[in-house]
Design a protein that fits this description.
Radius of gyration: 23 Å
Strand content: 5-15%
Largest sheet: 5 strands, parallel
Helix content: 40-55%
Number of strands: 8
Strand order of the largest sheet: 4-5-3-6-7
Length: 391
């Protein structure tokens, strides 16, 4: 064995250690501010609770109301978690069977190929809780040093083989692109996923990877990883966009931007094909839509979690029976999962700049939302669920 001795430059050594010390102090200061902010936030929530007590009571009561379904009439949908939105009951009649891909499954294996920053951590926690009461096995991928989303044919074959070997009923959760199991000689699992407004999602990711607790968790899991530079930690999203920083340049048509911020939400539904890498690409979006239509039982919407849970309960009952009850029984815990106190508001002007480059991604998001609404309306028309509407 041949060994090579390297001369160590003492000045370089101390410069490196000093840089790491500065980064560590920066993270420590941020952590201190985090705990201080927690106390202030608790006080603010107490005050808000007093001001909105009566409104919350009205919203909770409205959840138990059942109004007659009137086709093609605009109604106000009372959300279980508070708030009101307009929901239009269409004239068209929808068929639950046609909209339910679960009926095609040959075995009870559920695959949640979760998209980052869409509430997937909360959904994974919910799925694990439901596994006890609904009697199915829960499996998940471990924490990865580098998350591999797009797989080679060999890697995809290994993944599909592993999932197919799970004893039904089983569920598996992993950050990865859609895989067509039949391509590898296996029957398709029951696919579910979540999506989120693309602009809000990339903003959330930007601040998520800068959160003190995220950095500390990563350092504890992988001690060899270097601490981020203080200047990188201090970036804010608006300045990043307006200054033309490479991290915040979302260029349509790019395949390899080198940022690794999961900006391609549709890629998780498109698959592992190289063309799926094209950011905001028409081909990738159309392939993603086709896969959702043909293979996904439910693609929920983070912003419409109440409808998402109800549709999951009815269309994938083996795994999600009682999901709404369990979710809201543990709402405090669910809302705290990966919640980032350090995400400042971003102006509509900056969001509008981004929307010009996310046209196809936004179109895919709206497509998923429309499909979820059809599934929900079909249940209402069938009488399988009570519409949470107020005249």
């Amino acid at each position: 064995m041949i060994c090579f001795r390297r001369n160590i430059n003492v000045s370089d050594f101390f410069v490196t250690r000093f840089s790491e010390l500065v980064a560590l102090v920066s993270v420590s200061t941020t952590v201190f501010l985090f705990f201080h902010t927690q106390v202030l936030n608790s006080r603010i929530q107490e005050i808000q609770g007093i001001l909105t007590a009566s409104a919350s009571g009205i919203s909770a009561h409205a959840n138990s109301l059942v109004a007659p379904v009137v086709p093609s009439t605009s109604r106000k949908l009372i959300r279980v978690n508070g708030g009101v939105t307009t929901f239009t009951m269409p004239k068209e009649m929808y068929n639950v069977s046609v909209l339910n891909n679960t009926r095609h499954a040959l075995k009870e294996t559920l695959f949640f190929n979760r998209v980052p920053k869409v509430g997937s951590q909360s959904m994974m926690d919910l799925l694990q809780r439901l596994s006890h009461q609904n009697d199915f096995r829960f499996h998940r991928d471990g924490t990865q040093k580098v998350e591999t989303i797009r797989l080679t044919y060999y890697e995809e074959s290994r993944l599909t083989t592993m999932i197919d070997m799970f004893v039904p009923p089983s569920s598996y959760v992993k950050h990865t692109c859609f895989s067509n199991f039949t391509r590898h000689g296996y029957s398709m699992p029951i696919y579910v996923n979540l999506v989120r407004d693309p602009i809000e999602r990339v903003i959330s990711w930007f601040y998520y990877i800068r959160a003190p607790w995220y950095i500390i968790e990563r350092k504890q899991a992988f001690p060899e990883l270097p601490l981020p530079h203080p200047n990188w930690l201090k970036k804010d999203f608006e300045t990043c966009v307006l200054s033309g920083d490479r991290e915040c340049m979302f260029v349509p048509g790019e395949y390899h931007d080198g940022v690794g911020d999961h900006r391609r939400q549709a890629m998780f539904f498109c698959g592992h094909d190289e063309k799926c890498m094209e950011f905001n690409g028409k081909w990738a979006i159309e392939r993603a839509k086709r896969n959702v239509e043909q293979h996904y039982s439910v693609v929920g919407i983070l912003e419409e979690m109440d409808i998402t849970l109800e549709v999951l309960e009815k269309y994938v009952p083996k795994f999600f029976n009682g999901a709404t009850q369990v979710y809201y029984d543990n709402l405090t815990v669910m809302q705290k999962i990966n919640k980032n106190m350090y995400k400042p508001p971003v102006s509509e002007a900056v969001k509008n700049i981004l929307r010009k480059n996310f046209t196809q991604e936004i179109d895919f998001y709206e497509f998923c939302k429309q499909r979820l609404h059809k599934q929900y309306v079909a249940l209402v028309q069938l009488g399988s669920t009570h519409p949470k509407i107020l005249g």
